[in-house]
Amino acid sequence: MNQVQTALKALIEDETSFALPPETNDFSEDDWAWLLESLVSEQRILIWPFLKNIDTTAVLAGMREDARLQLVSSLPNKSVHKALANSDASQVIEVLDVLPTSVAKKFIKKLSKETQNHIRESLNYTDDQVGRYANHNVFTVNKSASVESILSELKSVDLPEYTDTFLVTDEQNIFIGEITINELFSAEPQDLVANIAKTSVHIVNADLPLLDASNLLKSTKKSMLPVVTETGELLGRFDINDALEIFQEHYEAQIAHLGQVSDEDLFAPVALSARRRAVWLGINLLTAFMASIVIGIFDKVVAEVVALAVLMPIVASMGGITGSQTLTLTIRGLATGQLGINNVSSLKRKEIAVAAINGVAWSLLVAIITGFWFENIALSIIIAGALIVNMLVAALFGILIPVTLDRMKIDPALAGSVILTTVTDIVGFFVFLGAASLILI
Amino acid sequence: MNQVQTALKALIEDETSFALPPETNDFSEDDWAWLLESLVSEQRILIWPFLKNIDTTAVLAGMREDARLQLVSSLPNKSVHKALANSDASQVIEVLDVLPTSVAKKFIKKLSKETQNHIRESLNYTDDQVGRYANHNVFTVNKSASVESILSELKSVDLPEYTDTFLVTDEQNIFIGEITINELFSAEPQDLVANIAKTSVHIVNADLPLLDASNLLKSTKKSMLPVVTETGELLGRFDINDALEIFQEHYEAQIAHLGQVSDEDLFAPVALSARRRAVWLGINLLTAFMASIVIGIFDKVVAEVVALAVLMPIVASMGGITGSQTLTLTIRGLATGQLGINNVSSLKRKEIAVAAINGVAWSLLVAIITGFWFENIALSIIIAGALIVNMLVAALFGILIPVTLDRMKIDPALAGSVILTTVTDIVGFFVFLGAASLILI
Questions:
Q1: Residues of chain B contacting residue A271, judged by C-beta atoms under 8 Å apart
Q2: With an 8 Å Cβ cutoff, are A240 and B223 in contact?
Q3: B218 near A245, Cβ under 8 Å?
Q4: What separation in angstroms does the CA of A79 have from each of A48, A60, A94?
Q5: Whether A74 contacts chain B with CB within 8 A
Q6: CATH topology of domain B140-258
Q7: Which of B184, B270, B432, B440 to mutate to test the interface with A (most CBs of A within 10 A)?
Q8: In this complex, is the C-beta atom of B362 within 8 Å of any C-beta atom belonging to chain A?
Q9: Which residues form the signal peptide (chains A, B) (predicted)?
Q10: Where in chain A is the domain with CATH 3.10.580.10?
Q11: pLDDT tens per residue, range B346-379
Q12: What is the DSSP pairing of strand A224-228 with strand B175-180?
């Protein structure tokens, strides 16, 4: 892929005659999505018209949401419309969902009646629910058909990807059940579908959250599941590739939030990127000022014993790391559902024990180094005590904060680490400087 | 699932008569793995003997590596042996890989000859390569067979999960090609497999890294791919569920490392957990002391102008967040392969521009607040300047550090944030206190 980037770069810089490098001839839609994301905006727009004989809506849908938004909003309307014209509604929706509703509506109007109908159905569901993105490209068999007729139909049909099951419906498109490929092979030609279809099967309710649907599909070890509406109608299917992308998006968003950044395009516009990150920086500034105020309370002792100013980052940062370790584990436990009211107290006991061991061990080392450095035994004792207290508090809050956020239906991965750092900074400075002001002056 | 935990807890606490709650009757292996991970060690061992009519090796293989290690090493050898006896080699290897080699060897000796052979083949590959975990449960067809004979064979065969393709081999088990289900349906009964099999198909080389194989499988939109050795032999298959688990492990490890913790079991033993986390705490302490030394250099000015001690955490933490934002984006770009020599300078330009905008904006605000708080214009100018410098340096190093680590073949997600924090702390304190000592005294 790297060679393609290099070849493309040379061609773009050449400027006289542009053509795509031959390596891109057998590029899939996902390959194109990957390549476009690695280019800066102007280059993306430059090569877009050269994407031919390829489902460009799938390319857009395959891009990260933010990169997709950048590209779609900078392409001429005509190009976007051309891309959307012949695509499956589920992918059209993915593309249009990044646009403002009024703009999206204009594009929808120009689509085929069938696609418009699919889109109308999809819009009954939120962008967090399976129904919105259900893939309509499904091979269904009618319950009154015979095995023989299906087998003969299959001779001329191109099965969609990930078809390991044939979905059975009635004339009103009500979902009846399924026949696995295995079962179809072992059936007799004259058998009726209605008689051999399994009716008690895993289905995905159209209003199920995407992440839950992904977990369900994974645990069933099937390649796809039928998406069924409240009234029992077959809306479409949800396949293992969809699940894989949901998981990837979920984890990438978590990682982005832990890094205090939105899940942004590598080459998002500078102004937009600066504005988005300013939110995180502003929150951080607020918490930093809170820590400053705590230090300010004890400015007399700091002025008198300047070693306190030298050492105070150690107390705060060791608490920060201890808390972050517990927080990370707790957030994962909440996300997998493995941590709940039944075992949170067991986790508390364990984490506090771990923090106590490390607190005592490291505070001893810090006390010794401090003793040699500043030749002040009282200071050694104060920093050791402050470290132990802060690390214990950190472990406790590393559990309490995410558990509380989770109960308040706030994503712990989003806000947890900022709140925790505030706690460990404030407690660290307060205990360390507070003890110093009591003992040293 | 939560109800199962509650029911189980009540039963465990009852202690008189133990039986599994009825909800677990239709538990899959993955459900059991999930449940066991959510229990503390003693409970895991308590309920293990009650797992009946279930592939317990698959349960173990489905658990997180660390939890698996804890459980396997605390179960009696007899239980482990019983679990492994009738399982597929790929899952036996997953379980034994967490044990010391000498212990693993003892278990291997007692397995069936066929499994031992499979294991011997697998051990030719490292625990990072597909060959080691190739699933041997594959339905293959011989190239000299006719379509008719396959169809009749399929009547009585249970196809493995995720079979969307029939793999074709010759008598020596050399991989020849594949027939999709679609192609099999449209073939004539008397066609020979050799004539209709596609020979130019996607395969996974057995020595391919697991993550690359997962990406390949995803991009092909197939449910599984054949795993082929250097000599062309069919070793087994790699399916989309394997890929999904590889991705999950990959992301969970990244998240754990960003939280400065190993990817540990929720209920790992306290001593082990404390030891593992001590490594991260020790590294952090080292960097915290480096920051302290920098502050120590300027202890005179800090003693004279105590406002410096009050404000210095702001400079360090705003730099830290700015750097972490750039670092997060850079690490993702490197992981997806989208960031390389061709576009790293474009990213540098963008990130520095973003940092400059936010640096100027926030330093202005901080200068104003500082001015009102300490009524010292020189101090306002110093902190504003230090903030801008530190945020620019942070953005630059947010790219340089992971790119350099990546070139040195060190995982940037593992060490990147620690090194970056060290840089932003030291630069922040040095610039802020250094400028203060030049200007204020």
A1: 357
A2: yes
A3: no
A4: 9, 12, 17
A5: no
A6: CBS-domain (3.10.580)
A7: B270
A8: yes
A9: none
A10: 140-258
A11: 999 999 999 999 999 999 999 999 999 999 999 9
A12: unpaired
